[in-house]
Amino acid sequence: MAYDADAIVIGAGLAGLVATAELVAAGRKVILLDQEPAQSLGGQAHWSFGGLFLVDSPEQRRMRVRDSRELALQDWLGSAGFDRPEDHWPRRWAEAYVDFAAGEKRSWLHRRGVRFFPVVGWAERGGYDATGHGNSVPRFHLTWGTGPALLAPFARRVREGAARGLVDLRFRHRVTALSGPAAAVDTVGGEVLDHSEVARGRPSSRTVTGSFELRAQAVIVTSGGIGGNLGLVRRNWPARLGTPPARMVRGVPAHVDGLMLQITEAAGGHLVNGDRMWHYTEGLHNWNPIWNEHGIRVLPGPSSLWLDARGNRLPVPLFPGFDTLGTLDHLMRTGYEHSWFVLNRRIIGKEFTLSGSEQNPDLTGRSVRGVLARARAQVPAPVQAFLDHGADFVVEAELGALVRGMNALVGEDLVDEGELRRVVVARDREVAHPFTKDSQLTAIRGSRAFLGDRLVRTVAPHRLLDPAAGPLIAVRLSVLTRKTLGGLETDLDSRVLTESGEPLGGVYAAGEAAGFGGGGMHGYRALEGTFLGGCLFSGRAAGRAAAAAVG
To answer: How far apart are CA 36 and CA 110, in angstroms?
Structure first.
């Protein structure tokens, strides 16, 4: 039986586009399948903030940040906490990825037209010892143009390949089976879905209008994770993080359903580390949703007072932006599903950034004028829209009224005004002098030692109850689903492995479907800016390896 193409790529997100672009560069013929309409080309990367993890970059050096491959690997391994037999390949992928981030990653992207915002961000700061979790230095490089700009050069190469007859783009094709000879796959079967004109990210029809069967020498799975499938998220929820929340907001659309992972497993692929996942604790209900239960993440600076549902201050070092999973672990043990930021207008104006391309029109549109206007604004327009329309915000001039609003919002008197006042006043006393035993204030001052934070991300320490900095603001935070850290086990050529450790003939995996490489190169925790980069790196490896194999 003849082949329909040299390779079939399943999933037209960032990893799929990169893999397809590499196959096209090698002159291979590719069929690119995706269950969503053409207007959703690029998948979740389109909605992303465009953050990338780079090591010892020109942007870092210009901001007086000294970084190295050795320091980055120390941070990565301290965060990943690899401790399982199946972490062999994830660890090797982690080492290779740090080499990539410290080596050719930036120049490879630069040659493709990708540019970076000059201020480097400092995510996942940790707060433990030198070998524990967190970034020792700022490494979060924001793509100028956010996610769409990162996608653009790869989408362009795929479209150019289509114009040359090397790429056959088939949207509304949902894969339901992989098959082939023993210990190999060469056939992809599935359903053709009804044509859909819905906007990107909105639910599309699941009406089946036909079926298909295609054959190729190589099949690359780049179908994403499980973040839109709340049932699968709860089924895989690790016991170490307590009971999964009954209510969560989705950081990705429902079609990020994880079903292709199960299909590949049924064909012989080995799924590992399914209980490792990356969900945020700073989720907001989007006041203008695109998909069902659409959540937006706050990218906070370090100054907000973080409280659990009962108004207790979170322990050291669980400050905003320091340890995502450590915070999730703590909050899930409180018996409640939400937490609070308490801050004021001065803090929200400088320290609140909302994740996502659609929440940052100035950066996404590459508007220097817009970025300058944001810097001059008392509160950036996207944040002000949430203050005006969002369901999670309470704004009051006085602390007692703020507490009453917080309790009214959740329908239960969980926060005691007197106790919260005691905590806030005690914190404010510590601001009056340059010495403090309050670890959060020490962290804030440490943040401002970094030029980027002092300029655009961290306000000078001041009293929360200072009327000149008001009004006071409370923000209810929910768990927001996002990334699958485990996935299909792969070797360094992105070949999917079977349970015995042998390659599943003809099958490759990249992006979130492969845990961004190896079945989970992040281990238990991520350093941020590493998800898009993992798609780039593993997609490139899969495309190059498949191109060589079918040559």
So the answer is: 30
Query: CA–CA separation, 71 vs 438, rounded Å?
Result: 28
pLDDT in tens, 95-107: 999 999 999 999 9
H/E segment holding residue 105 = helix 105-111
Indicate the helix (H) or strand (E) that contains 278.
strand 277-285
d(CA 525, CA 506): 31
Q: Could you give the angle at which helices 531-549 and 14-25 cross, rounded to 10 degrees?
A: 30
Q: Is the pLDDT of residue 485 over 90?
A: yes
Tokens for 46, please give them: 């389109």
Strands 173-179 and 187-193: antiparallel
Tens digits of residue pLDDT in 325-382: 999 999 999 999 999 999 999 999 999 999 999 999 999 999 999 998 888 889 999 9
What pairs with residue 484 in β-bridges? Answer: 277
110: Cβ contacts below 8 Å, ≥ 6 apart:
none
CA dihedral over 148, 154, 157, 161, signed as positive or negative:
negative
Query: Contact, 464 vs 503, CB < 8 A?
Result: no
Token code pair at residue 255: 């079609």
Tell me what percent of the chain is helix, strand and coil, each rounded to the nearest 5: 35, 20, 40
**Torsional class of 151: left (φ above 0), alpha (ψ -120 to 50), beta (otherwise):** alpha
Contact (CB, 8 A) for 245 and 533: no
Residue 91: CB partners within 8 Å, gap ≥ 6? 77, 80, 82, 518, 521, 523
DSSP 3-state of 32: strand
Kindly report whether the global pTM for this prediction surpasses the value 0.85.
yes
Residue 528 identity: E
Q: What would the two tokens of residue 291 be?
A: 């998909």
> CB atoms < 10 A from the CB of 79, how many?
25
Quickly count: other Cβ atoms within 10 Å of residue 244's Cβ: 17
Q: What is the mean pLDDT of residues 152-170?
A: 98
Which helix (DSSP H) or strand (DSSP E) does residue 283 occupy? strand 277-285
Section 449-454 average pLDDT: 94
Give residue-wise pLDDT tens across range 254-265.
999 999 999 999
Residues linked to residue 296 through DSSP beta bridges, in sequence order = 284
Mean pLDDT (the chain) is 97
Q: Of 333, 356, 358, 328, whose CA–CA distance to 485 is shortest?
A: 328
Q: Tell me which residue has tokens 């369901």.
A: 391
